[in-house]
Amino acid sequence: MAAMAALAPSPSTATAVGLAAQRSSSSSRPTPAAATTTAAFGHTPSAQGKSRGSRSSSSSSSSSSSLEVSSCSSQRLVAGLGFQLSELLASSSSALSSSSSSPSSSLSSARRIPRRRSQGSAGAGGVSVVAASEPREVLIVNTNGGGHAVIGFHLAKALRSSGHGVTFLTVGEEASDKMKKPPFNRLAELREIGVATVWGDPSAVGAVVGSKQFDVVIDNNGKDMEAVQPVADWAKASGATQFLFVSSAGIYKTSDEPPHVEGDAVKESAGHAVVERYLASLFENWSSFRPQYITGSGNNKDCEEWFFDRIVRDRPVPIPGSGVQVTNIGFAPDMANMLALAVDKPEAASGIIFNCVSDRAVTFDGLVRLCAKAAGKEAKIVHYNPEAVGVEAKKAFPFRNMHFYAEPRAATEKLGWTPSGELGQILKERYQDYVASGRDKKDISFPIDDKIIEALKQPALAV
User: Fold this and answer.
1) Could you tell me which residues come within 8 angstroms of residue 442 by beta carbon, excluding any fewer than 6 positions away?
2) 402: burial class by Cβ within 10 Å (0-12, 13-18, 19+)?
3) C-beta separation of 249 from 223 below 8 A
4) CA–CA separation, 41 vs 461, rounded Å?
5) Alpha carbons 160 and 244: distance in angstroms, whole number
């Protein structure tokens, strides 16, 4: 099994490009957590504050056992556009040996690639600046199904383009049929840029990665303590100094004042919420990211495909209720970049919960029209009352039948994150992927749709 090389920028290279950097606490390596597991677990930490008057989240001091917002440290900034490191010196680091790795593990040696420009704020005179970060060794524990899988795929790419060493642990076995679906059938793309790909059981993560040491561990798999605690405990014991968790915006309680912002009330018994409290008690430097619906290249969970299936066949698209319900669909590469910024800026991200979402909302009817435009078709929309026509909305429609959207305020304020994706253009690209997959030609039946449309022939049931 090939060794994973650690990447470090050459001092001579930095000098050659004339970069002037000033060290600050945000770019230094975080110190190991001093808090113990038992000190705060079971205690509900204070939520990130926000003012409903100003509709923005507020900051307050944070501790290792609290969900309070920590104040941003000053960042080490490198001025000027157009500069990038021309080479990164690949030096031998402790490798994952075949004797201590999973039999299905496949490790690739890292290639030298240029550092990605992090998204940052504008400097004096409006000149953009770049946040510098020491190369770190990062382990991504990635789910083998569901919508979150694509986030980890794009995150591995983003971290490598920043010069970090990345090991990508996919839950399960390499020979699984799940690996035939995206994004797993594209893992060769990760190996080509120097990401080490391994497979195994997260509850035995130490046996999978062997003696490999990691600075950062990212759990993009677990939904509860049973799944996440073994990974978190191993990360703590092995000396990782930062832990990132991909949670869910679904843990927010229904609010009369949308959108959801960081600090809103959550369902305290929800698995993701329990995990967040545990991580706050265990790590000095940790963050949680709460996504909603996801789209983007490599996604394998029906989102826009549900709409395309009907639109390309000139069928009406049944929408529950009025169609003005608002939701949020995040672009996977943008969501991945948000997590990558947390690795680049560990102090700024420490102790913060981030809504990992787009900065724009969309209505159900609006989504139908955008999908139809992407396919070059006219939108045909019918509205219905699920109870009146005798169907369950959650079985008839892929989204929650309600206003459900959040805003990424913490990421904007703490990390300087800005999204790059525009939903209309993203859907055009996704439609091209849809056609390329041949799904537009498949024989698909729509029994629930047919029941709805037949019921709507009775005027009293139409919305």
Assistant:
1) none
2) middle
3) no
4) 51
5) 17
CA distance 127 to 100: 49
Helix, strand, coil shares, percent, the chain, to 5: 35, 20, 50
Tell me the per-residue pLDDT of 348-366, one tens digit each, with 9 for 90 and over: 999 999 999 999 999 999 9
Let me know the angle formed at the C-alpha of 50 by 44 and 52, rounded to the nearest 5 degrees. Answer: 125
In angstroms, rounded to a whole number, what is the distance separating the alpha carbons of residues 359 and 361? 7
Query: Encoding tokens for residue 215?
Result: 């600075």
Instruction: Specify the amino acid at residue 165.
Output: G
Q: What is the DSSP string of 168-222?
A: EEEES-TTSGGGGSTTGGGHHHHHHTT-EEEEE-GGGHHHHHTT---SEEEEES-
> Rounded distance, CA 192 to CA 163, Å?
14
> Which residue in 408, 436, 317 sits closest to 370, CA to CA?
317
Give the pLDDT confidence score for residue 133 in this predicted structure. Answer: 65
Amino acid at 206: G
* Residue-wise pLDDT tens digits, 407-456: 999 999 999 999 998 999 999 999 999 999 999 999 999 999 999 999 99
Please tell me the class of the 6-292+332-361+414-421 domain. Answer: alpha beta
Residue 259 preceded by cis peptide, ω within 30: yes
Backbone angles phi, psi at 277, to 5 degrees: -65, -40
In b/e form, how buried is each residue of 243-269, taking b as 16+ CB within 10 angstroms?
bbbbbbbebbeeeeebbbbbbbebeee
**Residue linked to tokens 């798999």:** 221
Judged by DSSP in three states, 249 sits in: helix
- 10-residue mean pLDDT profile of the chain (463 residues): values are 37 35 37 35 40 38 38 36 36 38 38 34 32 83 93 98 98 96 97 99 97 98 98 98 98 95 98 98 98 94 94 98 97 98 98 98 98 97 96 95 97 98 96 96 97 84 47
pTM, rounded to two decimals? 0.73
Longest CA–CA span in the chain (Å) reads 77
Give the model's pLDDT for residue 457: 87
**Stated length of the chain:** 463
Token pair for residue 274?
């329990």
Alpha-carbon distances of 51 from 251, 328, 329, rounded to whole Å? 20, 22, 25
Contact yes or no for 147/176 (Cβ under 8 A): no
Residue pair 244/286 in contact (Cβ under 8 Å)? The answer is yes
